[in-house]
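[Solved] Which block belongs to which protein?

Original post:
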Amino acid sequence: MGKKNKPQGRGVLATNRRARHDYKILDTYECGVVLLGTEIKSLREGKVSIADAFATVDNGEVWLHSLHIPEYSMGSWTNHSPKRTRKLLLHRNEIDSIMGKVRDGQRTLIPLKLYLSNGRVKLELGLAQGKQDYDKRQDIKRRTEEREIVRELGRRVKGIHA
C-alpha cells in the first residue's frame, strides 16, 4: 500500500568549486556511478568530498579515483573503503570521444558536481585543460570589472528614479 518516498528532484550532494578556477572546462558529461549500498546511505547523510577526485580511462572504461565517501555510521563489517576506485557509466560513443580527447595528455577528467537525480547518483564530469596563473588572474580581473559595471549601473538606475 505505501510507496517508498524517493527523492524525485535534483539534490546536489557535492560540488567542486575549485575546478572552474583551476581548469578551463571544455566539455561536460553526465554519468552514473557504480556504488555499494553503504556508500549510498553515507551519501544520503551528506558526507562526500570530490575536491581531490579525478577520472581516468582504462581499457575502454572510465574510473573515478580519490572520491572520498566516508564509511556509513550505522554500517558493520559490510562497510566500504572510503577512497576506493569507482566505475563511471557512460555510453560507448562518449567513452570513445573522451579517449580521443584525453590521449594527448593535455586534458584531464574532473568531477564538477555529484547529485541525486530520480533516486540515482549522477556525476557531472568535465573534460578540462589546466589554466596557467596568468589565465587565473585575467579571469579574476574580468569578474571584478563585470561586478563594478553592474554596481555602477545599479547606482545610475537608483539615481534616475530618486
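(Second protein starts here: sequence line, then its C-alpha cells.)
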Amino acid sequence: MQAPLVLAASLLAILGGCSDGCANDVVSRATSPDGKVSAVIFERNCGATTGYSTQISLIGPDKEPSGPGNLFRADTGHGAARSGAWGGPWAELRWLSPNHLLVRYATGARIFEQSARVGGVDVTYEAAP
C-alpha cells in the first residue's frame, strides 16, 4: 500500500515544480485613458537557448503579464531590427482612445503574433525605422 502513496507523492512533487521556465520582465506600461486596461511591453526570457523578444499584453491595470504576449510577439530577426534597451526589438505604445491602441515597433522585426483586436481594444501597428 505504501508504494502507490510514494509514487503519487513523487508525481505531485515533480508536477508541482513544473513551469515553462520563462520569466517576463516589464519594460513599459501604458494604462488606457479610462483606466480599465493596461498595455504592457515586456521581454520574455526563456533561457540561454532563446534570443531576446519583445512581447505586449493587454491586462488589468493592477496585473503583471504571465505567459507569452496576448497581443504582440517579435524578435529582432537575427539583427535585422533595431533593438530596445532590453535586447528585443524596439517598441512603444500610445493610447489613441480608451479602446484604441497604437503599437509602433522596429522595422525588420520578425513578428510571431500581431493581433488586431484583444478584449474589445482595437490595435493599429506601425513599423518605424
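Accepted answer:
You had them paired correctly. Confirming on the second one: The radius of gyration is 18 Å.
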